[in-house]
Amino acid sequence: MGHLAVHIELAMTNDVLIHTEAGVMTLTLNRVDKKNSISVAMYSAMADALAQAATDASTRVAVFQGHETIFSAGNDIGDFLNKPPAGMDSPVFRFLHAIASFPKPLLAAVCGPAVGIGTTLLFHCDLVYAGDNAAFSMPFVNLGLCPEAASSLLVPQMLGYHRAAEALLLGEPFMAEAALEVGLVNRVLPPLEANNYAQQQARKLAAKPLSSLIETKSLMKKNQTTQVLQVMAEEGASFGRMLTEPAAKEAFTAFMERRKPDFSQL
Ligand code: COA
Prior knowledge:
It is a single chain. By secondary structure, the protein is α/β, with parallel strands linked by helices. It has a single domain (about 1-190, about 220-255), classed as 2-enoyl-CoA Hydratase, Chain A, domain 1, CATH 3.90.226. The protein is built from eleven helices and nine strands. A hairpin with a 2-residue loop joins strand 1 (about 15-20) and strand 2 (about 25-30). It starts with a helix and ends in a 10-residue tail after the last helix.
């Protein structure tokens, strides 16, 4: 119980709820009125919780979940305009680093839209369960941006180059069944069952020897982790520059003004 109190104190926002029980830390995106878009405060709370859980023996497994109607609309677009990430110490980079190097099993339950980082974070999860209403999209180009979270490496690796180009250049959404087919998702369930199913699987993992889980994950990932972190840093430099350029400004302003962006001069 002592650990539980610490975890709750770490989260300085109610927009993400962080709860640890029976070795499972659950991070619930809880900003449904803004479609679970992720603010700087939410990245910060999740990065802190994951950093602590990486070494804290009371956490054996971590699970991301959203609402049965929406996983996440991605980065908060107002923050992109007003509080763009500055450098590797920024909350979003701390969060990305934390999910790319989390040593224990990381799970996600995804229902409804998963936009931008809502999809790219899943490439860092070990097990992903989707509601049959899940819709994955990475519309970085449509926003005048480029991939993040090492998605320029991990998406072609998992989907194959041509499907990756469809997802990353056209920014077209793909649904739960397609995600299952390419291996991004382990199982598709009715939306009301996805969170519970992920919890059941997390509890199964939490009952296993933690040292074996950590060793096995490390052996599966270790050849790639350095490259993933390097690609993340490269993408981050481009992304940070592009956030300030005219195409992104036009895309964000258009979103706020509820109109289609006009890239004809860009
Ligand atoms: N950042 C900030 N606010 C967001 C947001 C985001 N990424 N996505 C949605 N919202 C807000 C809307 O501004 C709106 O706020 P309001 O009620 O104060 O006007 C509210 O959430 C509801 O969004 P709305 O677009 O009306 O919901 P919808 O059900 O019609 O569509 C989505 C849902 C997810 C398809 C749509 O919101 C969307 O495309 N969001 C942007 C996704 C995006 O481009 N993210 C960045 C990825 S890098």
